[in-house]
Design goal:
This protein is an alpha+beta fold and 396 residues long. It folds into three domains: 129 residues, no CATH class; 122 residues, CBS-domain; 84 residues, Uridine Diphospho-n-acetylenolpyruvylglucosamine Reductase, domain 3. Helices cover 50% and strands 16% of the residues. The protein contains 16 helices and twelve strands. The chain has a five-stranded antiparallel β-sheet, with helices on one face. A hairpin with a 2-residue loop joins β10 and β11.
């Protein structure tokens, strides 16, 4: 009764299983259930010992009482304690459900005695400062549910999707955004021929349109509307502006779960992330958020070469890569509580913009810059190094 899985029991109750309902009812008052079980348990043990003693005296003599006591103790431990409780612990449902047929009527028959026992027991328990009403309900915390999922038989892909949902509570739009320096858009100040030419080159689902600089984005052009525009015989800027979707501005550090809801409420799929001063930090799409749950969605025929394993066990990494992507793809644990990109992490750790290539160590990771351009790290070499702990040094 105590070893039964409470969550499976709740599921069976929802499935209208009568035995599960009966067991659940009994478990609502654990003190009374234990009272019924222990009264019956101790009564049968005492009765069995008394009968064995009487039989021993009549057949042999009073000198056999000690031998019978030892014999009955061994029998009770093996056949009335260890063996049945081991079986019950391994197969709780197969024991608890049939037992509930007897325990329910017994709890009514022995109700006066059970009430007396529980009153005395609960009264003594309160003397130790334990209030039975303060007992916490058995509820899984997110961390416990994570562990349960990892040890379950759920297929790996579904497990990763469920874990991705939990990750959304700990991630913000900054963790999945496309940084401003990587945003590719169309300058509306260009002539119409140049705009048409650039539109044919850009393959993104949502194309930002700006004036002069990316900080002055006028809106987004979806791939469907781009096709409509390019199919016109005489495309013009005036017609292009009528197809533009006004930009949606998202405050930095907005949790992904909230932004997903906002996209649904606004019926939008792309937004610009801005800081407290209104400056653009990056761009995030609905697809970027969904990839946290379902994994990477790629329509490209060629895989991006942003992580290149080397023969010596090191990796060549693009500096613009998100640290979280690096950790996920090569199973590392670089810190994610500060800068979001590898370049930002290296520059923050170095506390300056190096004039030449440098090497830094962050925990068990060694990072070396390979290419620095325009005040950012374009390419870096990284490897995991083994650190000796104090315990290992003591053992040596």
């Amino acid at each position: 009764m105590m070893a039964i899985n409470r969550y499976r029991l709740k599921h069976l109750v929802k499935e209208r299983n009568k035995s599960a309902r009966r067991v659940t009812k009994l478990l609502e008052r654990t003190d009374r259930l234990l009272g019924v079980i222990l009264i019956g348990n101790n009564f049968t043990h005492t009765l069995a010992t008394a009968i064995a003693t009487v039989i021993a005296i009549r057949i042999w003599s009073e000198s056999a009482v000690l031998a019978v006591t030892v014999f009955m103790t061994i029998i009770m431990i093996i056949f009335a304690e260890v063996m049945p409780k081991t079986i019950a612990a391994l197969k709780p449902e197969s024991i608890a459900f049939p037992a509930s047929y007897f325990l329910k009527p017994l709890s009514k028959i022995l109700s006066p005695l059970v009430t007396l026992v529980t009153l005395v027991s609960n009264g003594v328990t309160k003397l130790f400062g334990i209030n039975l009403n303060d007992a916490e309900k058995e509820e899984l915390k997110p961390e416990e549910l994570r562990t349960l999922l990892q040890t379950s038989r759920v297929p790996k892909r579904q497990e990763n999707m469920l874990m991705g949902i939990f990750d959304m509570d700990h991630l913000s739009v900054n963790d999945v955004m496309i940084p401003k320096n990587e945003i590719v858009g169309i300058d509306l100040k260009d002539d119409i021929q140049t705009i048409v030419k650039n539109l044919n080159k850009v393959r993104y689902t949502y194309i930002p349109l700006y004036k002069d600089t990316i900080d002055n984005i006028s809106g987004f052009l979806s791939s469907n509307r781009k096709a409509d525009f390019l199919s016109l015989e005489k495309p013009s800027k005036t017609l292009l502006k009528t197809l533009v979707e006004n930009p949606l501005f998202i405050p930095e550090n907005t949790p992904l779960s909230i932004q997903l809801s906002n996209f649904q409420l606004e019926n939008r799929r792309v937004g610009l992330i801005v800081d407290e001063y209104g400056d653009i930090e990056g761009l995030v799409t609905l697809r970027d958020i969904l990839e946290i749950i379902v994994g990477e969605i790629t329509s490209d025929s060629l895989e991006k070469m942003d992580i290149m394993p080397q023969a010596d066990g090191t990796f060549m990494l693009e500096g613009s890569m998100m640290i979280r992507d690096i950790n996920r793809r090569i199973d590392w644990d670089l810190p994610t509580d500060g800068p979001k990109t590898l370049s930002g992490l290296i520059l923050e750790t170095a506390q300056s913009i190096p004039e030449s290539n440098v090497g830094i160590t962050i925990g068990p990771y060694r990072l070396e810059t390979v290419l620095i351009k325009d005040n950012v790290v374009k390419m870096a070499k990284a490897e995991r190094i083994e650190l000796e702990t104090d315990e290992e040094e003591e053992e040596d």
